[in-house]
Amino acid sequence: CRLAAIAAVATLCSSIAPVVGWGQAGNGRSDEHVPPGRVRVTVALVEVLPDTTVGAVIVRRATGSSKGDLILMTRNSASARQLSAAMATLQMTWELDGQIPTRDATVRVTARRGPAAWHDTEERRAESVVRRLRREKPAYVQSLGVVQSVEMRVKPIKLTRRSP
Q: Which of 10, 40, 54, 155 is a Cys-bridge partner for 89, taking CB atoms 3.0 to 4.6 Å apart?
């Protein structure tokens, strides 16, 4: 199963040395323009995760009116390290399954921090996103209800090296 492979790879993300590039936070409005080469990802704080043994969950939505990826964290689990781990897992998911979900799926983020190479760059950006997320007023997000959320415009990057 591809999702099992993603979860296994996610636990190894602290040893990955990626090219950085997961981007900016928008104002949370779904009608906002997404620049070419970027993908809209919503990060949300929820009361309880579908799996309480992990710090974050990625929900890939292929059906319904709000397709796309959600990163869910609780108020207690939300941190720059956890968001960085979720972003690394999402990037790996995109490599294996594509950027546009073809079926609804839930991906458990078992790692508690992102790649070591992201410590001084992406983790700082993640800290900014988490701070902003905590300040956002709750608003309606399809399939979640009223939650604090921030939309990001993420540039897909290649995390794994494949042999020719």
A: 10
Supply 138's token pair: 């709750």
Closest CA relative to residue 84, chosen from 126, 133, 42 = 126
Q: How far is 41 from 113, CA to CA, in rounded Å?
A: 19
Rounded to two decimals, the pTM is 0.76
Q: What is the pLDDT of residues 22-45, one digit of tens each?
A: 444 444 444 456 666 778 899 999
**Rounded-to-integer distance, Cα 131 and Cα 135, Å:** 7
Q: CA triplet 41, 44, 45: central angle to 5 degrees?
A: 160
Strand partners, 38: none
Backbone angles phi, psi at 140, to 5 degrees: -70, 130
**Tokens at residue 24, please?**
């900016």
Interhelix angle 2-10/80-97, rounded to 10 degrees, is 140
Q: Which residues of the chain have pLDDT under 50?
A: 1, 3-31, 164
Name, in order, each residue with C-beta under 8 angstroms of 54's C-beta and a sequence gap of 6 or more: 108, 109, 110
Which pLDDT score is estimated for 72?
97
